[in-house]
Design a protein that fits this description.
Blueprint: E1 2-6, H1 14-21, E2 27-34, E3 41-49, H2 52-62, E4 66-67, E5 70-71, E6 73-76
Antiparallel strand pairs: 1-3, 1-6, 2-3, 4-5
Length: about 120
């Protein structure tokens, strides 16, 4: 079972999660999610337990417990919805021509000027 672990202090490392969750069962993997630019912790991670029973036991026993001075949140991880490649909400184009033409219909920089 894959578990979400949130409200982590920024100095929690993978070994801290492995150590804590191994008290409840067999930990298959643990990861701290980091900012892709700064490399700093984003304050949450994921732990994969060997079985659903161990995952449920970890939620029951560890949710709300303290890790490095902060109460952590432990619950079943939800599958990530795939939002890659989508825009943020159906933006419809339009708008002006961006100043390409003057109101008289003459293109900027045009040598032909018909001023009366």
């Amino acid at each position: 079972m894959n578990l979400y672990v949130g409200n982590l202090t920024y100095d929690v490392v993978q070994d801290d999660l492995m150590q804590l969750f191994s008290q409840v069962g067999t930990v298959k993997s643990a990861v701290i999610i980091r900012d892709k630019y700064s490399g700093e912790s984003r304050g949450f991670g994921f732990v994969e337990m060997d079985s659903n029973d161990e995952g449920k036991a970890a939620i029951e026993k560890l949710n709300g417990t303290e890790l490095k001075g902060r109460a952590i949140v432990v619950n079943e991880a939800k599958p990530r919805s795939d939002t890659r490649g989508r825009t943020g909400g159906g933006h419809r184009g339009g708008g002006g021509g961006g100043g390409r033409f003057r109101s008289g219909g003459h293109q900027r920089g045009s040598d032909e000027r018909t001023w009366s």
